[in-house]
Amino acid sequence: MSAGVAGASNGTVTFSNDINPPATTSFDISYVDNSRGLYFLADRTNKAVDLIDAKTGTFTGSIQGGFQGATNSRATSGPNGVLDDSAGLVWAGDGNSTIKVLNPTPGANLIKSIPTGGTKRADELSYDPADQVILIANDFEGFLTFINVKTQSVATHFYYGDNTVGQPATVSGHSTAGGGIEQSVWDPKTGLFYQAVPACSTPPPDGTCKPVTTGFIDVFSPSGSLVKTYSVPGCTNGPTGLALGKNSYLMGACDNGGAVVEVGSGHVRTIVSGVGGADEVWFNPGDGNFYFGISGTTAPELGVVNGDNAHLVTTISGHGGHSVAAYAGNNHIFDPEKSGSGIAVFASS
Prior knowledge:
The chain has 349 residues and is mainly beta. The protein has one domain: Methylamine Dehydrogenase, Chain H. The protein is built from no helices and 29 strands. A five-stranded mixed β-sheet has the order 2-3-4-5-9, with no helix packed on it. The chain has a four-stranded antiparallel β-sheet with strand order 1-29-28-27, with no helix packed on it. The protein has a four-stranded antiparallel β-sheet with strand order 6-7-8-10, with no helix packed on it. The radius of gyration is 18 Å and the shape is globular.
């Protein structure tokens, strides 16, 4: 257990309070840097990345980067996925197929805007600090971009067979599962990226996805080579969100629960019921829990699953939305409110 990380609990999670940055009703992914005690939120309403001191729960300002903002289209809105690198620079995908590099202080602090090669949003991303590589997904256009963090430039792409940018498939016959491309994670033990590629089991009326029954997780080397693919049967319309737990397994978000997938073999151990409908999933090493940001059909919910035995701990209704992250130093969980009333803070004890 790293310094500053609270002891494991798995026990009681309760709503604490709301943090109130400038009112935001449109946001995407959020992220916590445990080593720095910082929380970042992709705030589309204010065309910025909001910065929160996770130790004190204090809003410290917004990082401006010329983002697209809320365009009334998921395909072109931004910022989307967000994280920071080992040097402290902030990276965020934008709605015009760029990834923005920002100084981590409030104000207009755009360092560089890197085109990924499409016209629609560069979305969720993950970071490999060992090889200094970021993987980001262009979900509406069917391709991945691997970024060299040191040079702040595109290293390579991986094009799925159904990409819409006119590129030949990187691996012949390998297409998405019909529901776009979602969260990826990097595993320090294997040195590989794990990319969630969700199914579209029940297409929406607007036809934004193609019906494929089973989603999967693609495994990539830092150089962008496809190593293997794990099918995730039983995961309805997923996996979307993806997080790495401490017992060498991944937790994927599905409409019908959380899919527990073994890192080494790809075996699906179980689907944890009670936490269906989440977008982002976050593992908190401080208390050993997975947290699910659930939009909810009637009210938003926070789902909590024990990371040791993959059993439901609780669900808390009435706060949050689809985005969630936790700070291990004090076991505070941050879940932005869809209502625009701020960022809900939960305490785990």
